[in-house]
Amino acid sequence: MRTSKNSSQRNFDNPVLAYITPWNSKGYDMAKKFNNKFTHLSPVWYELQSQGTNLVLEGRHNSDKGWIAEIRSRGNVLVLPRVVLEAIPVDLLKKKKQATKAINIIVAECKEMEYDGIVLESWSRWAAYGVLHDPDMRNMALQFIKQLGQAMHAANLQVVYVIGPPRSDKLEEHDFGPDDLKSLGNHVDGFSLMTYDFSGPQNPGPNAPLKWIHSTLSLLLDANAAHHRKLAKKLFIGINFYGNDFVVSGGLGGGPILGTEYLSLLEKHGPQLQWERNSAEHYFVYGDEQDTKHVVFYPSLMSMSMRLEEALSWGAGISIWEIGQGLEYFFDIL
Fold first, then answer.
1. Nearest Cα to 86, choosing from 61, 49, 128, 34?
2. Phi and psi dihedrals of 203, rounded to 5?
3. Which CATH code for domain 16-241+299-333?
4. What is the pLDDT of residues 18-57, one digit of tens each?
5. What is d(CA 129, CA 2) in angstroms, rounded to the nearest whole number?
């Protein structure tokens, strides 16, 4: 589990976006220690919310100027805090004044706090509100992102847009698909593709099967089209630094685990690591004090290496959720 003495050498040449969360402070330290491994850092700090007829950007209290200054003193990584659009979408998308106000608030915060841009998350929220099945509303949603991108670029700021993976080969109405990718391709600087959370307590299994990642990319990118490489270069393929501990007997349950918890389980139970070929992930099985059977899927250097190769084969970068949850030697491969 030891890390390489050379913590600054990059082994993965394409862009690397790393998420950091305030509730897991280890990520801040990892960002400093392995600074040169990343091209983009996205601390999860902001939410844009509706308060009556007003829009309010919550989260500045999370911002850490000292940490940003230290990060910048060590290299050229861009700092793009994540902003989640919690604002009521019908108001935000249908009312031009509201849309303009939201964009102005975001641009002003970036300028005042001296960020390099933002990572914007809104598609999943809009899907949850049920607005994306309406063609007119969907078009307004795309127009909002384009308008934001234009305003950010005019201020010399970047915007990376978060997109979820389709759950099957047949796109649902709310899915972000290839047409949406093409539509926004010239207006944003990247797409953070959340290719993880494939399994859950109700369907225990691998975190992010490699075949699923490949089929997601095949669905989003027409490999034969001229624009394929251009769009692929803007993708940050999601890689999880967390694992899952699922209950598989006596009822269902369980959920995400961090690197420290993973090591604890290995030490306590001494299980045999097994390789699941179909998903290209390592897992192990153990029984707890109540004789309940668990299965644990957690990233390994082998599983990560195969995902980095997949990203390189498309000419894409990667995004990591999130760097405080992994084991330190994971950074050797980046």
1. 49
2. -140, 70
3. 3.20.20.80
4. 999 999 999 999 999 999 999 999 999 999 999 988 999 9
5. 46
